[in-house]
Amino acid sequence: MSRPPPPPRRAVPTPPPRRPVPAEPSDEKRDASGIKNGISPARAVPPIPLRKPSDSSSVSSVTEREGTNTIDKSRLLARKPPPRPVPPLPRRLPSLNEAIPPSLKEILPVPPPPPRPPLPSRKRTEDAPQIDRAASPQTPPEVPGRRRLPPPLVRGSTPPPPPPVKLSTKPVLETPSTDGVCIKCYDFSAVDHHASLFPKHNIQSLATLARDLTEPFQSETEKARAIYTWLSHNIIYDVQAFFSGNLQHATPESTVRSGLAVCDGYAGLFMHLAKLAGIRQVSKVTGHGKGFGYAPLQPGQPLPPPELNHAWNRICLDDEWRLIDACWGAGNLNGSVWDQRLNPYWFTADATEFGKQHYPMDDPKNQLLTGRPCTWQEYIAEPLRPMIYGDFYNLNFDIYSLEPALDGLRTGGRLSFRIAKRCLHMSTAEEDNYVAFLYTNDQARTPLVADGSGGWSATVYVPPGSDVTLYYVKTVEDRDGKGLTVEEFQWMYGRRAMGTGGLAKWNAA
Predict the structure, then answer these.
(1) Can you say whether the dihedral through the CA atoms of 238, 239, 241, 247 is positive or negative?
(2) Angle, to 10 degrees, between the axis of helix 263-276 and the axis of helix 220-234?
(3) Which Gene3D superfamilies has this protein been placed in (predicted)?
(4) Are 234 and 270 in contact (CB under 8 A)?
(5) 365 in helix, strand or coil?
(6) Taking residues 492-504, what's their average pLDDT?
(7) Overall pTM > 0.85
(8) Using CA atoms, how far apart are residues 418 and 399, in angstroms rounded to an integer?
(9) I need a surface site. Which of 12, 35, 306, 493 has the fewest CB within 10 A?
(10) Is 489 exposed, middle or buried (0-12, 13-18, 19+ CB in 10 A)?
(11) Where are the beta strands (DSSP E) in 148-238?
(12) Which residues contact 12 (CB under 8 A, 6 or more apart)?
């Protein structure tokens, strides 16, 4: 049988012929009707239909004709894209009061501040309790955890000269008197600001400086305070001369010219400027000071002979004799570095406070005590006190009422601690103070609370062999910590960055 033939292939249709494209002539020709090369002109774009008028629209329809076309600008403006949404504001950090949950505020209500005690009468200096040893020049230990320190002070090389003081702009201040105003509570902020306006490189003469510093003020106390503050801004302790032992005699002129001095230079310049300002009863006192390098006597240690290592001033201000230490008022030694800052404590300290850290060698009457003068043995053999840091004085705490009063704690049990202000006139309101807390070796942090008698106290368990350090909350999230409540501190600790400062430290026995 023969094989059938294959089926025929399907025919592929031929493509349609291409439409001929006329060649583009090189020269354009138009006829009388405006037709280009035989091509009719494009039709006119029909006008945009008018929008239905709105009652709320206050924009009148403005039209513009271009040839036969009509453009409605109000319609075109209405077709603009919607404006971009405004980005949300950045999240604001909660304030100290907002940061506490409402539930915590209900559980821990803030008690009202205790009533302000009445103003007491001035006590005699012989009745004042004993104070502790001098403030330690060492830097307080840093509390464990993140701590933020303030930026260093940057001094300009050649600041512009201050403007002259006009008589019409003199500050009007009340004159401190021994009867109605307590010098520990007196506000010297206007005096301190005025004294900061006269850098030493602009001084023409010491007489001109004394006049510029004191002319706006009427009382001798304010005049002396202006001189005291000026020294803290313009004279730096000569650390190199102190540690090398190369101490040269300095005059007031040489001290201002160099800007360097030790205690004798501070006292001499203060006395000279005070006399130029019209304060006649002022002198320089030399003796012993419990400053840098001082160590209390240990039990059984022999009594050392009197040693002359310091100088300060005795001055009569507004009919009241006072003792002033301009050197310690200008800063303190931190190791081998001078920490320059105004310390007002040594301008307002009473005779008993002053005498616990200064012993005059020339005349016992320079102690200014109304009772029996203190002997060298009583002065130098004082019991070991807690270590006191500079901020303790700067925050106006009273070393008389500091508890425990002595160092060498008996650990392994519960101990009570207490601090108070130097004067009952000073505010103890929560918004005017910082939170202070105790730190022990077991990392316990116990805040001190108001005790209703003008102070703050706490009773804590101290582990065996543990030291106890008293701190205060200086900053919270780079903001001033003043006004922080105890409840806010307890809730924020560990949740917010806090900067702390040291007040005092007790060592274990």
Answers:
(1) positive
(2) 140
(3) 3.10.620.30
(4) no
(5) helix
(6) 92
(7) no
(8) 10
(9) 12
(10) buried
(11) 236-237
(12) none
Q: How big is the CA angle at 493 (ends 488 and 498), to the nearest 5 degrees? A: 100
Structure tokens at 305: 């002979």
Using CA atoms, how far apart are residues 396 and 482, in angstroms rounded to an integer? 14
How far, in Å, CA of 153 to CA of 175, rounded? 33
Q: How many CB atoms lie within 10 A of CB 503?
A: 26
- Region 164-383: CATH code: 3.10.620
Would you mind telling me the total number of residues written for the chain in this entry? 509
Q: Where are the alpha helices (DSSP H) in 301-373?
A: 345-348, 351-355
**Per-residue pLDDT tens over the stretch 198-229:** 999 999 999 999 999 999 999 999 999 999 99
Per-residue tokens: 453: 């008698």
Structure tokens at 374: 């203190």
Contact between residue 322 and residue 341 where contact means Cβ atoms under 8 Å apart? no
What is the per-residue pLDDT across 45-84, written as a single tens digit (0 to 9) for each?
Answer: 556 655 555 444 444 444 444 444 444 555 544 455 555 6
Three-class SS state of 331: strand
The percent of residues above 70 in pLDDT, for the chain, comes to 65
> Which residue from 457, 451, 380 is spatially nearest to 417, judged by alpha carbons?
457
State how far the Cα of 129 lies from the Cα of 426, in Å rounded to an integer: 19
Residue-wise DSSP of 396-456: TB-SSS-BS-SSSB--SEEEEEEEEBSSTTS---GGGS--EEEEETT--EEE-EE-SSSEE
Residues 397 and 454 sit within 8 Å (Cβ to Cβ): no
312 DSSP 8-state letter: E
Tokens (6 digits) for 61:
């329809």
* Spatial distance between the Cα atoms of 255 and 227, rounded to a whole number of angstroms: 14
> Among 271, 172, 178, which residue's Cα sits nearest to residue 227?
271
Between strands 282-289 and 449-450, the pairing is unpaired
Domain residue extents for the chain: 97-153+385-509, 164-383
For residue 42 the two structure tokens come to 């494009």
Among 281, 273, 268, smallest CA distance to 214 is for 273
What are the backbone angles phi and psi of residue 394, rounded to the nearest 5°?
-65, -30
SS3 361: coil
CA–CA dist 295, 137 (Å, integer): 12
Residue 400 in contact with residue 421, Cβ under 8 Å? Answer: no
Nearest-5° Cα angle at 235, 339 to 288: 75
CB 211 within 8 A of CB 205: no
**Phi, psi torsion values for 294, nearest 5 degrees:** -75, 140
